[in-house]
Design brief:
Layout (H helix, E strand, L loop, with lengths): L5 E4 L5 H13 L4 E4 L9 H9 L5 E4 L2 E2 L5 H14 L4 E6 L5 H4 L7 H16 L4 E4 L4 E5 L15 E5 L2 H10 L2 E4 L7 H15 L10 E8 L3 H18 L1 H6 L4 H10 L6 H8 L4 H7 L1 E3 L1 H13 L4 E7 L3 H7 L7
Parallel strand pairs: 1-2, 1-12, 2-3, 3-5, 4-5, 5-8, 8-9, 10-11, 10-12
Antiparallel strand pairs: 6-7
Length: about 325
């Protein structure tokens, strides 16, 4: 049973409220907060800086930035700055982004594994305060270093986590990253294949899977009213069914349901589209890929992810009562 627990935030709350939730989570023993950067709405870095500046202990991670839109030298400089603000508390989470969003803003996500390998390699070397020359297919740096004139010049303790869903990226994370940020809206059974591929990757670098940290995003819709909890999660599940079917397929959601949802829900979707599609999503699909229901039900579901290899549940609160979700997992995940 894991005694670690973390918070995940997207853009559902005003930043002032999000800061208070992070402070409350810190007071309740949460080890980290991960800030999303997925859709074109709220970037991760500004909230991370706000959380870091208004807390004392909790770690602050990007969950996740992508490896296409920021030069790796800028990524390294950004996380050096966050480490200046909150020494040894910044976590660099990087993912491969997703289509059609990437394509719609002019990014061709070709050779995603090679692109990720090059970015992670260079960011790590720069944060180790190395002088870097690197010429790959995607990354080109000549005589570059983090040019610290005032302040700490020693290597920075900023672990790099890859946000992975597909199994090839999972294996790469096991090979080159400090950890993997496992995705949400997958079933616990999905983790079996993920662990196998992480282990394969870890062996390539002479490590065991136990040396790879494995936090996992988990949608946590907690309400004392069970129906309300399920309905709160249903909207998010419906959006992912329509917009990111690769994640849904990885969890065993039927092709028939995905096809049916896709007929009424594409990206970008209107609120009316989402409402119509929600009626097609049954309770068992909601509960398959989220931790939704009463506090007791949610804790039991999260335990399934831990039993399947997750080292730290990263809980994404849905519904109005964020503090109830935090209290449900206060002071770690122990009975």
């Amino acid at each position: 049973m894991s005694d670690r627990v973390a918070l995940y935030l997207q853009d559902a709350h005003e930043l002032s409220d999000a800061i208070r939730y992070v402070q409350y989570a810190e007071s309740k023993g949460f080890e980290a907060v991960w800030q999303a950067e997925s859709r074109l709405v709220r970037d991760a870095i500004v909230p991370m800086a706000a959380f870091a500046a208004t807390t004392e202990r909790i770690k602050v991670g990007s969950g996740v930035i992508n490896n296409w839109t920021r030069n790796p030298a800028l990524i390294a400089a950004t996380f050096l700055t966050l480490d200046d603000l909150a020494p040894d508390r910044a976590i660099c989470g990087i993912g491969a982004w997703w289509d059609p969003l990437a394509r719609n803003v002019g990014i061709e996500r070709r050779k995603p594994l090679l692109a990720m390998r090059e970015v992670v390699t260079v960011v790590r070397d720069l944060l180790a305060m190395k002088h870097v020359t690197f010429h790959g297919e995607f990354v080109h740096l000549t005589d570059v270093e983090l040019d610290v004139v005032h302040g700490r010049r020693e290597p920075r303790n900023v672990p790099i986590y890859i946000g992975a869903t597909g199994m090839k990226m999972m294996a790469l994370a096991g090979e080159i990253a400090d950890g993997v940020l496992l995705n949400y809206l997958v079933s616990p059974k999905y983790n079996e294949q993920a662990m196998d591929n992480l282990e394969k990757g870890a062996k390539l670098s002479g490590r065991s899977i136990e040396e790879i940290d494995r936090p996992q995003l988990v949608v946590a819709s907690v309400d004392r009213d069970r129906k309300r909890a399920l309905d709160n999660a249903r909207k998010l599940v419906t959006q992912y069914l329509g917009q990111q079917p690769h994640i849904m397929k990885a969890s065993g959601v039927s092709h028939e349901l995905l096809d049916e949802i896709h007929q009424v829900l594409t990206w970008p979707a209107t609120e009316e589209d989402i409402e119509r599609a929600m009626a097609l999503v049954p309770d068992d699909v909601v509960q398959l890929i989220t931790a939704s229901g009463t506090p007791e039900e949610v804790r039991a579901k999260v335990r399934e992810y831990i039993d399947a290899g997750c080292t730290c549940p990263v809980l994404y609160p849905l519904g109005d009562d964020v503090k109830l979700m935090i209290d449900t997992f206060a002071d770690g995940y122990s009975d």
